[in-house]
Structures are given as C-alpha cells and as structure tokens.
Write a structure and sequence with these properties.
single chain; about 350 residues; alpha/beta; eight-stranded mixed beta sheet; disordered N terminus
Length: about 350
C-alpha cells in the first residue's frame, strides 16, 4: 500500500480499540472521542499491563472484558464497527523464555483471531500498534565501509563492558544513524519476533481480503498512565517506579544506549492520522515510525527524570540483557510526509510532566 502526499478528510467512524483500557490504548480512546469518533473497547485486563482491577470504562466508554483468542467474543465486539485500532499485546522484554508461549498466544494468536473475524465481518480498515523492536539493531555507518549492519552482540564483549558495536569487516566503532521503514527487519527478542509476526499476518490478511493496514512502529513511548513495578513495562516506567519507591534508577550497560522517546499524547495523535489514512482503495500494509526525531540516551532520560522528581540520582550498573540492542534512532520523515504526523512534545517538557504523573497500579 502506498500513501503519498494525500490529504485525508475527517470521517466519523465507529472504532474498536483492542487493549483500549491499557496505557497507550486509553490515550488513543480519549483522542478518538475528542475527534468525534464512536468507540468500543475490548480489553482482557492482562496482569502484565493491569496490576489492579480492569476499569469499568474509559472516558465513559464501557470496557468489554474479553480475550482476543475467543472468536465469539471478538465477533460480537466487531458488530457495527468500521475500523479497528489494535493496541492489545504483551509488551517489553518479559522475565525469561518461560514467557514465550504467553507472548505468542496473546500477540500472534490473538491477532490471527482478530483478523479472521474482521474478514468475516467485512471490516477492512486496521491500525496496528507495531514497534521499533522489529528492526533489531538500528542503522549504523562505518567510517571505512559506509552503511553497515553490526553482528549479533557477543556476551563476552558485553560482560567486559564493550557495549558499542564494531564493523564486522574492520572492527572500527560504528556510528548510529536514523533508521527508516525500509531497513531490514531483524527481531532479537521474543517480543520483537511476535510484533514482526503481527505485521506479517496483517499484510497477508490485507492482500487476501482487500484490507488497508497502517502499522505504527512505536519507538520508546512514555507518559502518564504507564504501569508501575512490572518487568513488562518500558524503561521510563521502570525508572519512575524506582524513584517513587525512593530507589535510584538502575541504568544498564553504560547508559549510552540511544533511543527515541516519544510522548504518549503524540502516539495517540499518530493513531488518529493512521485511522484517516486507512481506506478501501488503499490495499495492503504500510509501516511508519512513530518517533520524536530527537534521540536521547537512556542515561540522559534517567538523569532528567531523577532531576525532575527530586532524586535519587541514577546508578549506572554495567548490567546487560542479551536481547537488548544498543542504538535505535528513528527517522520520522515518512510519517510526516504521508500521514502529516509530527511529534510535538519535547523530552524536557514530557519528562517534567511524567515525573509527577500518576502511574497505573
């Protein structure tokens, strides 16, 4: 599907938001309502995202508690629906490989059931919450050999504190570059593999039934309502939970990992843009980075958050996780050009707000 330089008129639609009571889903729900859309929410209340009870509603919209792997429940939720924004997923690195079946079940089987029921119901418009993790490592350049993909990270190098990737041919240290949506995809964790599978399933569905899919590859999303004290949450929530408990944020490796931190309010706006871009005459899947375009290191995020919260200061531990990647720096150009989406919240303003915002219990 190619969406280029087109202006999309606002259309009021009846939208099903899967995972609509979760962190990002609840912000998307509110943005849809503010834009005048009708919304239905389906959410299973998975404990990885909801430590407490699932709310009965979001901004006055009742929450239908159901599992995406239940075809009858999904079929009922799709009645009268024009489009689906699919947020429901297990996220994060998880605890260990014992989580693998649950990741695949929730993310891939759940998506497969949703797509099958959408085809049966005649719903052909889908906005998919994908992730930058599908890239694996980001884009790099070698001073000698130009654009280069690094080899897999070696556990001996990591244990010795050698975190920066080198050129596989000459060994020179590689420089991170912005990665765009046409980069090779190379998932390096269970979660990443399931997110790429979601894209593949959605693309196959679109080709077979004539559907239109906008896959939003979220970079590191942060903001009010993130779940606290869970290994399935993002690094911003892990740091914020530590600060709230009076503990110093623990920064892995040397803190120099580069990421693009994007505020959840911007992510919600990107979903509205993605919804407008789905159309019956646009068949197939088109992917977009959802990012600020202003990268920062994990150490810089921890320091800014601790300063805004009032301490304690972060501790750089040298610890590492083999499934982590070193740098992922996003190019937001396609989303700006084709969706008209540009992130508006800068990191300083966003972190200052997030330092004192409520977390999800």
């Amino acid at each position: 599907m190619s969406i280029r330089n087109r202006t999309y008129g606002h259309r009021v639609t009846h939208v099903l938001v899967t995972g609509g009571a979760g962190f990002i889903g609840s912000h998307v729900t509110r943005a849809l309502l503010s834009a005048g859309h009708q919304v239905r929410i389906l959410d299973v209340g998975h404990p990885a995202a909801h430590a407490g009870a699932l709310p009965g509603g979001v901004n006055g919209v009742p929450v239908l508690r159901a599992d995406l792997r239940d075809p009858a429940a999904v079929a009922g939720a799709l009645r009268g629906i024009d489009a689906v924004i699919h947020q429901a997923a297990m996220v994060g690195m998880g605890v260990d490989l014992g989580d693998l079946p649950e990741y695949v079940g929730c993310n891939d089987l759940g998506t497969a059931v949703l797509l099958a029921e959408m085809a049966h119901a005649g719903v052909r418009r889908l906005v998919l919450a994908s992730s930058m993790v599908v890239y694996g490592e980001g884009a790099y350049a070698c001073p000698e050999h130009g654009p280069t993909r690094p080899a897999d990270r070696d556990i001996a190098d990591l244990a010795a504190g050698r975190f920066e990737p080198g050129c596989p041919r000459c060994g020179y240290r590689l420089s991170p570059m912005p990665i765009d949506e046409d980069a090779p995809l190379d998932p390096r964790s269970v979660y990443a593999a399931t997110k790429l599978a979601q894209e593949h399933l959605s693309a196959a569905w679109a080709r077979q039934c004539g559907g239109s899919v906008v896959a939003l590859r979220y970079h590191n999303v942060y903001g009010p309502g993130m779940p606290k004290d869970t290994p399935y949450s993002g690094v911003a929530a892990i740091f914020r939970s530590a600060l709230q408990a009076g503990r110093a944020p623990r920064v892995f490796e040397d803190g120099g990992q580069r990421r693009d931190f994007v505020h959840v309010s911007d992510v919600a706006r990107a979903n509205l843009s993605g919804l407008d871009a789905t159309a019956e005459d646009r068949i197939g899947l088109r992917a977009y980075n959802v990012a600020s375009g202003r990268p920062a290191t994990v150490g810089e995020l921890a320091a800014a958050l601790a300063a805004a919260f009032g301490g304690p200061d972060p501790v750089v531990t040298g610890e590492f996780r083999l499934g982590d990647v070193r740098h992922v720096v996003a190019s937001p150009a396609r989303a700006a050009r084709e969706l008209g989406f540009t992130a508006s919240v800068d990191l300083v303003s966003g972190v200052t707000e997030f330092a004192h915002a409520a977390l999800r219990g």
